[in-house]
Amino acid sequence: MERDRLNSRMDNHILTTHFNLQGIKEYPNAYQDIDWLNYRLNLFTNYTIPSLNNQTDLDFHLVMFCNSNTPELFKTKLLQLEEQNNYLHLIWDQTHFTGLGGDIPTFYKNIKETYLKYRKNNSEEVICSKIGTDDLIEARYNQVIKQIAENNSIASIATGLYWDINVNKFIYSVFPTGPFVMVKSNLSNFKGELREYSHHELISKAGGVPIQTDEPLWIQLIHGDNVWNSLEKMPGNLIDNPDDNYLKINFGYNKI
């Protein structure tokens, strides 16, 4: 597939993520724990940000929810990242995850208002998807999401990799109800990423379509700080490790 930067662009794709919201019982004080914040910020800057900067289509927005009680040192670091990456927009109004103390309509309101502030298009149609601050997306991810949205309102990107960075092992996975989902809606009836449903339910209950691609379009990191994930629990099969050149070209990752 052609990897040159796209000339014809539409910035109506919003990726959403969170950095340090509260609500996960295993890490009740993570939002203000200096060691945890350092660790997670390093994951985000060393893995996720390079994959975003590596996109063939750079017209997208990443809306990241940050705890309003984030320590000042990390507020400064996050604001510097926002300044360095024009697609990154930070929201400081929330403290808790949706479903764990956070209000879904408020999340939607913040996403929509932030998007309207920065968008460069006049389209009524908008696409939302979710990634983690410890995920990598393949170079064509934004491009493919927009193509899928032409014919689908809800879809999951099923094909990807799990990478345990502690033991340096990879699993190839086709996960039809996985977390890499997209939702298309209109600004007049903005649905965000349909947070009312889990990513499983977006396919099983909300009518979403699993999309299996020829190549992996995401990498989810396993790193010992995941609450739910471990390599043994993930669907798929162990594969030979991709070489460094593949990870650099396809996911923007430069070996640390």
Key descriptive features of the protein:
256 residues; alpha/beta; Spore Coat Polysaccharide Biosynthesis Protein SpsA, Chain A; 7-stranded mixed sheet; 5-stranded mixed sheet; globular
Number of strands: 12
CATH topology (fold) name: Spore Coat Polysaccharide Biosynthesis Protein SpsA, Chain A
Order of helices and strands: EHEHEHEEHEEEEHEEEH
- Overall 3D shape: globular
Give unreliable regions as ranges.
1-8
Q: Can you offer a commentary on this structure?
A:
This protein has helices at about 35-55, 70-85, 105-120, 140-150, 200-205, 245-250, and strands spanning about 15-20, 60-65, 90, 125-130, 135, 155, 160-165, 170-175, 180-185, 210, 220, 235-240. It has a single domain, classed as Spore Coat Polysaccharide Biosynthesis Protein SpsA, Chain A (Alpha-Beta Complex), CATH 3.90.550. Helices cover about 30% and strands about 20% of the residues. The chain has six helices and twelve strands. The chain has a seven-stranded mixed beta sheet, with helices on both faces. Strands 5-11-7-8-12 form a five-stranded mixed beta sheet. The model is unreliable at about 1-10 (pLDDT under 50). With about 260 residues, the protein is of the alpha/beta class.
